[in-house]
Specification:
- Mean pLDDT is 77; it is low at 1-12.
- The protein has helices spanning 5-43, 47-62, 65-78, 82-102, 110-135, 142-170, 173-191, 205-212, 215-244, 249-274, 279-299, 303-331, 338-362, 366-398, 403-416, 420-437, 442-457, 461-479.
- The chain contains 18 helices and no strands.
- Helix 5 (110-135) crosses helix 13, helix 9 packs antiparallel against helix 14 (366-398) and helix 11 runs antiparallel to helix 14.
- The chain has 3 domains: 12-193, Growth Hormone, Chain: A (Up-down Bundle), CATH 1.20.1250; 206-394, MFS general substrate transporter like domains (Growth Hormone, Chain: A), CATH 1.20.1250; 403-479.
């Protein structure tokens, strides 16, 4: 162990530890905000009256975020003060807007103000996700830190459920929102305790974009979007089903609490399964688990099966999210900018909105909706299993022979987008791979390596062109 690694590890742990109370207070405020809206839009009116109000809420506060979200990343990246300053502005802004919203729950101002809170919430998530890699010195610590943050968020969600339901029953939705504003404000103060980042991360936009559009990241994103769609559908379909059946408010709150408990359990399960299964396999397993419990709940739907399905959903969503984060960190290690995470969060948010819209509009019987959920999620998990098997079979048939060609294509694409320095490094990797699987003369590979070092030390377009040409020749000869 080097002399500096312990200090870096401690710094990473200290910085990440200072983010935990921020996550806790923000999660409590988030839970209270959700309960206040549920209390004003759902509990106090009939099912028929609740549907149009919820549809209007989704349309005016969630759907426009799909248009606005791509702008959030560039704004975060351009603001002075870094991601810590953005965290402070987002959580402090939520406290201020929540206070205003507390007196507007029965007016049309509810919708634009709730929309602003939702946008600020996504700013918080994007800036937090972009901040974590910069305050954790050891990359191996990232999974642990993400799990701790999720664990704290789950516990805080449970606390918010207990606090919120109690205040809702005693004082009403406006006071639930005022309590949420208080927790937001405390969280904003906690942001001031976060130390500066370990290092200033300035990754290449071209490399980041290339990584974020890779097949592994795309497959993981589709799976996670499926889980988010199932979550949006679950909450509204089960909520309407229980309310139609005359279930008490505490039972509906208990289902939401079960989701939080399942999410908390997932923060322990995910790290233990991570060493045995790949991130893609964990996402597929999460989908399959949810499909199985949805099918069981469809056979006989009542309060206990709704709670069991909530537990399964929370567990699947938590394990899937940890696996999803692991795939991003592994296959897109240069994704540090707010714009990269904003794009991911946008897709996940759209999935949640679509699932919620389907549940509100469909008005399907409880068993039919859950059966459709089971079939849809099960089909997605089966499709992922087939795709994974096909990819393994193709890889076994082709072996490593195609790796140099893929690397060279990447190098040429990166060069075409203007980042020639990164293209030189990828071209060298292509030649190294060709040397392993083909008959590349060692002296020619040595020439390429020398020219790569020269190009890296003194950027020169002519030398970079020569490097790319040499790599192309070597890879072509090896492939032939």
């Amino acid at each position: 162990m080097t002399a500096t690694s312990p200090d870096h590890s401690l710094l990473g742990d200290s910085a990440a530890g200072s983010l935990l109370p921020v996550q806790a207070f923000h999660s409590v405020g988030e839970g209270l905000f959700a309960i206040s809206l549920v209390g004003s839009l759902f509990f106090n009116v009939t099912v028929d009256a609740a549907r149009p109000r919820i549809l209007l809420y989704l349309a005016l506060t969630m759907a426009p975020f799909a248009i606005l979200a791509p702008l959030i990343g560039p704004v975060i990246d351009g603001l002075r003060g870094g991601h810590r300053g953005v965290l402070l502005l987002s959580i402090g802004g939520r406290a201020a807007v929540a206070l205003l919203l507390a007196s507007q729950l029965k007016s049309l101002l509810l919708y634009p103000e709730a929309f602003l809170i939702v946008v600020l919430a996504k700013v918080f998530v994007v800036s937090r996700n972009a901040l974590v890699p910069s305050i954790v010195a050891d990359r191996d610590h990232l999974v642990v830190v993400n799990s701790r943050l999720a664990r704290v968020g789950a516990v805080a969600g449970l606390a918010a459920g207990a606090i919120g339901i109690g205040i809702l029953q005693v004082a009403g939705a406006p006071w639930v929102l005022r309590a949420g504003a208080l927790f937001y404000a405390i969280g904003a103060l906690m942001v001031l305790r976060i130390p500066p980042p370990v290092r200033d991360l300035k990754p290449s936009r071209v490399v980041e974009s290339t990584e974020m559009h890779g097949p592994g990241v795309s497959a993981a994103t589709i799976g996670m979007v499926g889980l988010r769609m199932a979550t949006g559908f679950f909450f509204f379909h089960v909520g309407f089903s229980l309310k139609t059946a005359g279930a008490p408010a505490w039972l509906i709150g208990g289902v939401a609490a079960a989701v939080a408990v399942g999410g908390f359990a997932g923060t322990f399960v995910a790290p233990r399964l991570h060493g045995r299964l790949s991130g893609q396999e964990l996402i597929t397993g999460s989908l399959f688990l949810l499909a199985a419990f949805a099918a069981l709940a469809a056979l006989r739907f009542h309060g206990s099966t709704a709670v069991a399905l909530g537990l399964a959903l929370g567990l699947a969503l938590s394990v899937g999210r940890r696996a999803f984060d692991g795939v991003i960190q592994t296959e897109a290690p240069h994704a540090r900018r707010g714009r990269a995470y904003a794009g991911l969060e946008t897709r996940l948010e759209i999935g949640w909105v679509i699932g919620a819209f389907i549940a509100v509009i469909a008005r399907s019987p409880d068993w039919l909706g859950l059966l459709v959920l089971a079939v849809a999620v099960g089909a997605l998990s089966i499709d992922r299993i087939v795709a994974h098997y096909s990819a393994d079979r193709v890889a076994a048939e082709t072996g490593a022979a195609t790796l140099p060609i893929r690397l060279l294509e990447t190098a040429e694409a990166v060069a075409a987008r203007g980042d020639r320095q990164q293209a030189v490094l990828v071209a060298l990797a292509a030649a190294d791979a060709a040397a392993l699987v083909g008959s590349v003369p060692a002296e020619r590979l040595a020439v390429l390596q020398r020219r790569c070092r020269e190009a890296a030390a003194d950027p020169n377009p002519s030398v970079e062109d020569e490097v790319l040409q040499l790599a192309h020749q070597l890879v072509t000869e090896s492939d032939g």
